[in-house]
């Protein structure tokens, strides 16, 4: 019996779930087929009787064993298919084996039906010094392990929200091991058949849990996951395939900066003909609902984004030995892209055609970027233009400057239709001549680039594009290229009129976010003339308020005002809004929520990178506590608050082109340039001064802008000025020394830090709650901490498994910590039975209902932690008078 039980766990025999089976085995075969299975003798007898009547009698007509085998298999498969058809079971539904695993999972760990199993894997769990061979079950909310070896049972249940660290380690004994840490313990798993797949799924599920701790979005069902293909492997659960599809879509969106609701349909290897170097480049084509994208196998060689709204013709060209299975795609701006070596071209063309039919055709205006240089007048004239403008606005030469600054639409809502910088052109002094000449050459270089590589969203993006960005984007082209590189151009093109509607809806609305916005408006780039009058301030107010209205989870956070004011200088008001959307929701995830989690995560990543790349400085900086202090403002404002304006915008250029890796590289380069000075610092104040003076001295000698006084430099002391540092040289140096930092490495490090940061914030919240409430109750600090953990677990459970109210109603992050988490009566009833001294006998449910009604002061059918503890405190620790008073109140009729 012990041996059978052990083998059952190790080999995952189905005998425990289906104890009765009918097997079919041919005389000369070692393999048997499971014909039927049942949970009881009665059920299996019914199956046998059916076989006797419908199958066994027919077998006598066959002459040889092969015919019998073929007939039996075909008959059974036909019966199963017919049963599935009648009962509406789809081909993609989970297999019998997986269904058995689900039954085991719910039975072994006492999980409710709502808890969905994602996948299960064979592995060893180290309990003490002894490895226990068994199965790890990964569900949406829990990591569970079960083993039964030689009469000894090992069982483990960990909630994903309790995990503080998840690592894949290698030891001498086991080259592959997964370490799972919680606040109180560490667990080790090894001997996986596929450790990479297991660890990747663990990461995904832990990430979902962290998102649930951050906000309610994590609990919302994503019903728009990609449809499963018929060729999907049947041994994997449908939920696992959905999660895999979601992860692939996330990587795809991040790679090509696409809107957050874009879903990847599939990808295939192919070649792309690149006319600029007359080569067929090997890479991958990605097809999604609204885009066709390409990236080369060789990094940074070439990438391409073709929105389906721009596509005019998709056609199959004739195959040849030189160009097998070619596919030609033409766009509205008369560019043609030639793909070849496509494996399943017909299927691909069909998918693209299907998506094209769904794409509603809209008309967009494609203008050329232009700027003119007039040497006699020593002034640069820039024409406000857009690569793709969703709502083209014609400006007549007879209009006055004041009339052109606003677009009064039908609803009378003013929106600035020009970048603020174009309204503040100043006549430049004589010494600016060489700078204007250099600016003109930069513009010409970009125009030549557009002629060769295409212009607009469908341009070929190559290493040459990046090199041009690193040399600095011309002032006149900055806004348009920011839109292009950030992907904001796509969201703006597909949402015409959205911003104006938001402005209209948010006008006159007042809340905490609008109060904070009003307070910070005049602190946003006050040294720039564009924000020294009501016009610039009003545009900034509209963009920030509209965004707070669009995304109440973020609302408004300090530092958003500084970044947005710079966006408004170079982009029209609507464009600045979509650039802010791209920053907050895609390029700087979770940076600007109430707890600046994203910036804290990247701060942790930066510390890790500093330890790896500048080890001689790391220990010293940790002792001084400088890294965490300095880097927060660097990351939150993209160096805009710590560098002279004309230098910081060059950093923003590179950021929109290359992403967050630029900020990490630059931050490391700044530390590395000051190693000797920092090593001699005695305290954090001295280190801050060294870095502050260095950043103040970063100059952009190419800038045609009149110098704008920088806040830090205004506060300078009598110490001799720091030698000037050229921004372009600093950026080049950061690429040479730290260019090996890859985006995928940053994402791995972010995951590790996210667990750490969010769990630290949760611990801080718990301490704050306990400290606030300890004086109001008779409980000790330890008791309150345990009660808080239990209350929060009950709240999260109700979010996982449903209830009478949704997650948003039960959790309001805008409330004080004590009142954020709330539970309804069903959850309270369970806790009442567990904790309250009167929870016994036939009347416990009635008592629970009456106490809940008494504690629910505002009558919203939910109680928060403060209300819960006040009731429990009186019941458990109150004196006789308090207990009688509580019982009396409970029995008074409402």
TrEMBL record:
| GO BP terms in the entry | system process
- Every copy of the Rab-GAP TBC domain together lies at 472-659
Tell me where the signal peptide lies.
none
Query: Where does the record place the EF-hand domain?
Result: 843-878
**SUPFAM superfamilies for the chain:** EF-hand, Ypt/Rab-GAP domain of gyp1p
Q: Please provide the record's keywords in A-Z order.
A: GTPase activation, Repeat
Pfam families reported in the protein's UniProt record: GRAM, RabGAP-TBC
Give positions of region: Disordered: 392-411
GO molecular-function term, one example from the UniProt record:
calcium ion binding
The answer on whether this UniProt entry bears the keyword Heme reads no
What this chain does, per the record?
Answer: May act as a GTPase-activating protein for Rab family protein(s).
Stated name of the protein = TBC1 domain family member 9
Q: Give the originating organism.
A: Catharus fuscescens
């Amino acid at each position: 019996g012990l041996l059978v039980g052990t083998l059952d766990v190790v080999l995952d025999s189905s005998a425990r779930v289906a104890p009765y089976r009918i097997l079919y085995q041919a005389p000369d075969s070692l393999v048997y087929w499971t014909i039927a299975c049942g949970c009881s003798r009665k059920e299996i007898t019914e199956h046998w009787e059916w076989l006797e009547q419908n199958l066994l009698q027919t077998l006598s007509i066959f002459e040889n064993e092969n015919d019998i085998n073929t007939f039996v298999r075909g008959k059974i498969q036909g019966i199963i298919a017919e049963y599935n058809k009648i009962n509406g079971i789809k081909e993609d539904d989970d297999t019998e084996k997986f269904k058995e695993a689900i039954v085991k999972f719910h039975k072994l760990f006492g999980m409710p039906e709502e808890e969905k199993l994602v996948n299960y894997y064979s592995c060893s769990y180290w309990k003490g010094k002894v490895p226990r061979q068994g199965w790890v079950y990964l569900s949406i909310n829990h990591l569970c392990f079960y083993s039964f070896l030689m009469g000894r049972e090992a069982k483990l249940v960990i909630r994903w929200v309790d995990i503080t660290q998840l690592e894949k380690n290698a030891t001498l004994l086991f080259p592959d091991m997964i370490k799972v840490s919680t606040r109180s313990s560490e667990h080790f798993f090894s001997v996986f058949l596929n450790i990479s797949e297991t660890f990747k799924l663990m990461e995904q599920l832990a990430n979902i849990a962290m998102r649930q701790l951050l906000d309610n979005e994590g609990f919302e069902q994503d019903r728009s996951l990609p449809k499963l293909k018929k060729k999907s492997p049947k041994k994997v659960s449908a939920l696992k395939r959905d999660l895999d599809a979601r992860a692939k879509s996330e990587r795809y969106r991040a790679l090509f900066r696409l809107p957050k609701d874009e879903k990847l349909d599939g990808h295939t290897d192919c070649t792309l003909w690149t006319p600029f170097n007359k080569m067929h480049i090997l890479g991958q084509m990605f097809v999604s609902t609204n885009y066709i994208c390409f990236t080369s196998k060789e990094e940074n060689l070439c990438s391409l984004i073709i929105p389906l709204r721009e596509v005019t013709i998709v056609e199959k060209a004739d195959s040849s030995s030189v160009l097998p299975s070619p596919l030609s795609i033409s766009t509205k701006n008369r560019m043609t892209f030639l793909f070849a070596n496509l494996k399943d071209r017909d299927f691909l063309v069909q998918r693209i055609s299907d998506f094209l039919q769904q794409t509603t055709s809209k008309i967009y205006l494609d203008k050329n970027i232009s700027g003119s240089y007039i040497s006699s007048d020593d002034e640069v004239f820039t024409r406000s233009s857009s690569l793709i403008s969703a709502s083209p606005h014609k400006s007549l030469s007879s209009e006055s400057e004041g009339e052109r600054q606003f677009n009064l639409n039908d609803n009378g809502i003013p929106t600035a239709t020009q970048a603020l910088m174009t309204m503040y052109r100043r006549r430049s002094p004589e010494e600016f001549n060489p700078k204007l000449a250099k600016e003109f050459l930069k513009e010409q270089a970009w125009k030549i680039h557009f002629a060769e590589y295409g212009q607009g969203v469908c341009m070929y993006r190559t290493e040459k594009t990046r090199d041009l960005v690193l040399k600095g984007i011309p002032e006149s082209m900055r806004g348009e290229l920011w839109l292009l590189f950030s992907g904001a151009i796509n969201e703006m093109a597909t949402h015409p009129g959205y911003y104006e509607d938001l402005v209209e809806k948010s006008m006159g609305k007042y809340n905490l976010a609008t109060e904070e916005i009003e307070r910070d408006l005049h602190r946003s780039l006050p040294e720039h003339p564009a924000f020294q009058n009501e016009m610039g301030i009003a545009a900034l107010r509209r963009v920030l308020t509209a965004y707070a209205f669009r995304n109440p989870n973020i609302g408004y956070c300090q530092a958003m005002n500084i970044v947005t004011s710079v966006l408004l200088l170079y982009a029209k008001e609507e464009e600045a809004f979509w650039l802010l959307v791209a920053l907050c929701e895609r390029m700087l995830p979770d940076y600007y929520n109430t707890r600046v989690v994203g910036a804290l995560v990247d701060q942790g990543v930066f510390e890790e990178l500093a330890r790896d790349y500048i080890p001689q400085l790391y220990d010293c900086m940790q002792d001084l506590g400088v890294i965490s202090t300095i880097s927060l403002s660097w990351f939150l404002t993209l160096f805009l608050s710590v560098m002279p304006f004309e230098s910081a915008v060059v950093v923003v250029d590179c950021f929109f082109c290359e992403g967050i890796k630029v900020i990490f590289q630059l931050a490391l380069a700044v530390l590395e340039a000051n190693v000797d000075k920092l090593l001699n610092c005695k305290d954090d104040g001295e280190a801050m001064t060294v870095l502050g003076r260095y950043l103040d001295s970063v100059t952009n000698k190419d800038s045609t802008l009149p110098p704008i006084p920088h806040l830090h430099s205004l506060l300078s002391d009598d110490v001799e000025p720091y030698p000037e540092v050229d921004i372009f040289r600093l950026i080049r140096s950061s690429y040479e020394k730290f260019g090996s930092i890859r985006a995928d490495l940053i994402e791995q490090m972010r995951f590790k830090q996210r667990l750490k940061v969010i769990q630290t914030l949760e611990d801080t919240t718990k301490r704050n709650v306990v400290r606030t409430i300890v004086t109001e109750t008779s409980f000790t600090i330890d008791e309150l901490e345990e009660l808080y953990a239990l209350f929060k677990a009950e709240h999260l459970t109700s979010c996982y498994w449903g209830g009478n109210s949704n997650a948003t109603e039960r959790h309001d992050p805008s409330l004080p910590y004590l009142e954020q988490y709330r539970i309804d009566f069903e959850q309270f009833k369970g806790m009442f039975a567990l904790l309250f001294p009167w929870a016994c006998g036939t009347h416990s449910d009635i008592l629970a209902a009456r106490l809940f009604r008494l504690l629910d002061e505002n009558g919203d059918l939910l109680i928060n932690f403060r209300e819960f503890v006040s009731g429990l405190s009186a019941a458990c620790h109150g004196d006789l008078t308090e207990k009688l008073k509580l019982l009396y109140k409970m029995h008074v009729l409402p």
